[in-house]
């Protein structure tokens, strides 16, 4: 004969309606880039798992609404026209920022051609610019991703802020973050600077939906 015990929550505080305290960051396990890539090689993570590695944590990638897609399309077309064959424009593809970050930015301008990255992802030494289009993801793009890009030495970081309708350009990266920020608004043009040279410019009105 079996005995059935009353169902109880595994969280004692739920009985009183109180929320459980958050787990301290010091007690969470963080993955390195090598471990993250190994999980992909072993099939533990697949392309169906919409995650990226940010500061050692697996973070779910957000969905894309039409204005976001439109803006990314516009910037991609602009970069391809301006940069020619000397640079590779990659969309939503991984970049390797050792030791704890492998994000998949909206757009990356990387040195070389598609063939350059047949067997590896771009690293900071390869990258001229990273661009993220932000609406609901702004806190992440201006937070952990901003920090990782700066510490990794990514020379130019764009955040296309759809909510505030501006393009934020960050330069002069270092361990404490980006030292320089300049905002461009409707009616302005953004200089496209790669390897310290201005290769063209982008009208903010052509980037914002």
Characterize the structure shown.
The protein has two domains: 25-59, no CATH class; 62-207, Alpha-Beta Complex (tt1808, chain A), CATH 3.90.1570.10. 21% of the residues lie in helices and 30% in strands. The protein is built from five helices and ten strands, in the order H-E-E-H-E-E-E-H-H-E-E-E-E-E-H. It has helices spanning 33-41, 66-83, 138-141, 144-152, 204-207, and strands spanning 51-54, 57-60, 87-91, 107-111, 127-134, 156-161, 166-174, 177-185, 189-194, 197-203. A six-stranded mixed beta sheet has the order 3-4-5-6-7-8. Strands 1-2 form a two-stranded antiparallel sheet.
Report the mean per-residue pLDDT as an integer.
90
Shape: globular
Summed up, the helix count is 5
Q: Uncertain spans, ≥5 residues at pLDDT below 50? A: 1-15
* CATH architecture term of the largest domain: Alpha-Beta Complex
Termini Cα gap: 67 Å
Quaternary: single chain
Radius of gyration (CA) equals 21 Å
- Total individual domains: 2
- Structural class determined from secondary elements: alpha+beta
Number of strands: 10
Helix content: 10-25%
Topology:
Blueprint: H1 33-41, E1 51-54, E2 57-60, H2 66-83, E3 87-91, E4 107-111, E5 127-134, H3 138-141, H4 144-152, E6 156-161, E7 166-174, E8 177-185, E9 189-194, E10 197-203, H5 204-207
Parallel strand pairs: 5-6
Antiparallel strand pairs: 1-2, 3-4, 4-5, 6-7, 7-8, 9-10
Supply database-style keywords.
209 residues; alpha+beta; tt1808, chain A; 2 domains; six-stranded mixed sheet; two-stranded antiparallel ribbon; 10 strands; 30% strand; globular; disordered N terminus
């Amino acid at each position: 004969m079996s005995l059935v015990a009353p169902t109880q929550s595994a969280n004692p505080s739920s009985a009183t309606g109180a929320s459980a305290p958050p787990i301290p960051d010091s007690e969470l396990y963080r993955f390195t880039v090598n471990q993250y890539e190994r999980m992909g090689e072993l099939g533990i993570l697949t392309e169906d798992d919409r995650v990226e590695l940010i500061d050692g944590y697996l973070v779910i990638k957000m969905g894309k609404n039409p204005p976001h897609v439109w803006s990314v399309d516009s910037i991609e077309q602009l970069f391809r026209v301006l940069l020619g064959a000397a640079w590779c424009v990659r969309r939503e593809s991984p970049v390797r920022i050792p030791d704890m970050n492998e994000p998949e930015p909206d757009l990356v301008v990387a040195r070389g051609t598609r063939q350059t990255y047949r067997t590896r992802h771009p690293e900071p030494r390869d990258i001229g610019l990273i661009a993220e289009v932000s609406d609901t993801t702004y806190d992440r793009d201006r937070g952990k991703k901003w920090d990782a890009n700066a510490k990794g030495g990514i020379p130019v970081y764009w955040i296309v802020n759809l909510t505030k309708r501006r393009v934020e350009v960050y330069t002069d990266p270092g361990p404490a973050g980006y030292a320089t920020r300049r905002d461009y608004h409707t009616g302005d043009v953004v200089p496209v600077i790669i390897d310290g040279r201005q290769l063209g410019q982008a009208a903010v009105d052509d980037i914002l939906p």
